């Protein structure tokens, strides 16, 4: 009995020691976690670096300004006053990209997947064609099996080996194709020699010298097969072209650079978006950003100032989640902006019409314009003449009165130049007069910072950078900036694209960890130090017209109004040149607000949307409206979202 009692006492003491040791270990773990949390490291982020261009700044390092075109990736930016934040942004060295091995006796093979329609145009007009393929390979054999909804671009040099007369024969099953052959090595001299309705070429006299060749292939809902044969001098049967008669371009060749790929004759009919207008009237509207503004002193005092407090403003917090989307309304326009869209549904003979912006009645527009022109004449006599009504937008309020954005092209008889009048006016209900709404004037030179998040989408990031580059070149607008938060573990050309960009201001934040959109957007906004800059959320897969920045500026008013332009979601296989799709009426992912106002409303709800997807844009809208802001809704012509597969995108992506 005594032995059993002693044994129980030893066991009890042992259990107590184990309990104390476990408690002490748990205490140490909790202390360690608390210490890490006190360093304010974002929970979804593990490490990152930031690259800045000259003229941009990073608030997390205080008022540090870049004095170089590229802040070195091996440098550490440091500010002792905010040491803890700086630790989260230590730059790391960028790995170089080694060129993939490539067979010389071959053709370059670029491919794109998830592009609908067995139609060559659906590939040629795709924004990522021909310079941003999904896969870059080479093929030694012109006998190919291609999966469904896939586009392929083959190009390189054809080396006949002997002079003489040649013929070519294309064999295809369930595939659209075009074969182009140049008269020499220059792609610009190419001519179409084969297509679906012409499978055998005429006699072609070739010399013993290289010729540029390019082939475009496109499948639809079924896989396809394609082969190209030739009939060489003195032979009676067509044979596959041997690999020793082919030569591909190496990865470092100038021929595979974007600017040279874009010169290939296959793209000759790819009309640039900037040249696509339905009418001269729409062309003038789209290009009015190029007109100089009428001097401020010439419009000052044209109308008295008046109180502006629309009846539809939300005066209290929206308590029902996502209810804000029902508290906005669309802006009416004049002249008609031809924003109606069509969409094709399977099984329907005729397309369905998706209506664009509501039309403002002409007599209402004429009344407002007449008031403006008369006010200008009264102040300036015959100095200005009305040349063109560019746009009149109405924001209707049946209770208190309507707000207008009036944009006119005026001819100055003194210097014989044209100027742009673009001002907000208010027509109080029951009054016959117009007035300038108080504290409702748009900043014509405000910085617009396009912020974007990405995860494993480097091709689309490069496309986005190229798009903004083109806008910069067309507008000469020095107040365009971009901020990118990229969850990716590979250097796939994004930084190279930024280094070669003409943009004066950009910020690139690269992250590791699980993709977290709302936290990334807050991080992007936090990197913008200018409170008078517009923070404009955009999407990756966009085609953006040159007048987009101008539209953002004039529909975003500091302290008063955010803007959420509507884009057209293209159907699978539709292109900007041949758009079919629908307007994204319910989405608010394209959202602009001044940085000072972003801070005031609290930005994105990162905590509530850390582990779920969708609804974060409605949540932000609820917050913005609850703080007494308006949200302008206008459908922007030629502003497209390109269809893309959601395979392996966003959700649960972890980058290390």
TrEMBL record:
GO MF annotation terms: acetylgalactosaminyltransferase activity
UniProtKB keywords: Golgi apparatus, Membrane, Signal-anchor, Transferase, Transmembrane, Transmembrane helix
Membrane-protein topology: Single-pass type II membrane protein
Subcellular localization: Golgi apparatus, Golgi stack membrane
Pfam family, one: CHGN
EC number: 2.4.1.-
Keyword presence, Membrane: yes
Cellular component GO terms, alphabetical: Golgi cisterna membrane
Family: Belongs to the chondroitin N-acetylgalactosaminyltransferase family.
Name of the featured protein: Hexosyltransferase
């Amino acid at each position: 009995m005594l032995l059993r009692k002693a044994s129980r006492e030893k066991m009890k003491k042992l259990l107590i020691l184990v309990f104390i040791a476990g408690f002490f270990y748990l205490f140490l773990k909790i202390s360690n976690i608390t210490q890490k949390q006190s360093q304010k490291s974002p929970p979804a982020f593990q490490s990152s670096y930031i690259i800045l261009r000259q003229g941009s700044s990073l608030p997390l390092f205080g008022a540090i300004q870049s004095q170089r075109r590229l802040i070195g990736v091996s440098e550490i930016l440091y500010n002792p006053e905010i040491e803890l934040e700086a630790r989260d942004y230590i730059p790391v060295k960028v790995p170089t990209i080694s060129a993939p091995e490539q067979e010389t006796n071959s053709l370059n093979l670029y491919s794109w997947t998830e592009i609908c329609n067995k139609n060559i145009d659906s590939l040629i007009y795709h924004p990522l064609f021909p310079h941003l393929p999904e896969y870059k390979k080479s093929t030694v054999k012109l006998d190919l099996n291609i999966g469904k909804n896939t586009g392929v671009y083959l190009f390189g040099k054809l080396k006949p080996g002997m002079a003489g007369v040649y013929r070519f024969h294309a064999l295809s099953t369930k595939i659209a194709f075009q074969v182009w052959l140049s008269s020499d090595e220059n792609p610009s001299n190419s001519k179409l020699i084969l297509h679906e309705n012409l499978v055998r070429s005429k006699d072609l006299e070739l010399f013993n010298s290289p010729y540029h060749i390019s082939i475009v292939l496109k499948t639809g809902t079924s896989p396809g097969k394609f082969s190209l044969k030739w009939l060489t001098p003195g032979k009676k049967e067509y044979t596959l072209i041997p690999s020793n008669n082919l030569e591909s371009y190496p990865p470092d060749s100038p021929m595979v650079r974007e600017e040279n790929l874009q010169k290939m004759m296959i793209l000759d009919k790819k009309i640039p978006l900037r040249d696509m207008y339905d009418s001269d009237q729409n062309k003038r509207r789209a290009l009015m950003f190029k007109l100089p503004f009428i001097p401020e002193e010439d419009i000052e005092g044209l109308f008295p100032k008046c109180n502006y407090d629309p009846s539809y403003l939300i005066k209290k917090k929206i308590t029902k989640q996502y209810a804000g989307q029902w508290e906005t309304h669309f802006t009416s326009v004049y002249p008609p902006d031809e924003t109606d869209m069509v969409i094709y549904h399977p099984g329907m003979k005729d397309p369905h019409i998706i209506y664009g912006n509501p039309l403002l009645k002409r007599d209402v527009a004429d009344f407002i314009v007449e008031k403006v022109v008369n006010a200008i004449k009264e102040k300036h006599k015959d100095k200005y003449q009305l040349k063109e009504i560019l746009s009149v937008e109405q924001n209707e309020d049946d209770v208190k009165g309507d707000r207008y954005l009036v944009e006119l092209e005026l001819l100055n008889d003194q210097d014989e130049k044209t100027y742009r009048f673009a001002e907000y006016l208010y027509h109080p209900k029951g009054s016959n007069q117009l007035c300038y709404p108080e504290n409702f004037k748009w900043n014509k030179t405000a910085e617009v910072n396009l912020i974007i998040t990405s995860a494993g989408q480097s091709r689309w990031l490069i496309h986005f950078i190229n798009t903004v580059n083109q806008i910069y070149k067309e507008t000469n607008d020095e107040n365009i900036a971009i901020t990118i938060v990229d969850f990716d573990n590979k250097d796939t050309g994004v930084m190279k694209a930024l280094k070669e960009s003409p943009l004066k201001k950009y910020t690139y934040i690269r992250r590791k960890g699980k993709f977290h959109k709302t936290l990334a957007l807050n991080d992007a906004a936090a990197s913008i130090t200018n409170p008078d800059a517009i923070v404009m959320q955009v999407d990756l897969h966009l085609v953006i017209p040159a007048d987009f920045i101008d539209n953002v500026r004039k529909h975003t008013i500091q302290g008063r109004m955010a803007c959420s332009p509507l884009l057209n979601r293209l159907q699978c296989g539709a292109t900007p040149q041949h758009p079919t799709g629908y307007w994204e009426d319910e989405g608010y992912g394209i959202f602009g607000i001044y940085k000072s106002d972003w801070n005031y409303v609290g930005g994105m709800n990162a905590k509530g949307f850390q582990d779920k997807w969708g609804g974060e844009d409605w949540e932000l809208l609820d917050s913005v409206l609850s703080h007494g802001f308006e949200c302008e809704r206008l459908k922007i012509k030629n502003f497209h979202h390109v269809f893309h597969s959601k395979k392996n995108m966003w959700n649960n992506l972890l980058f290390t």
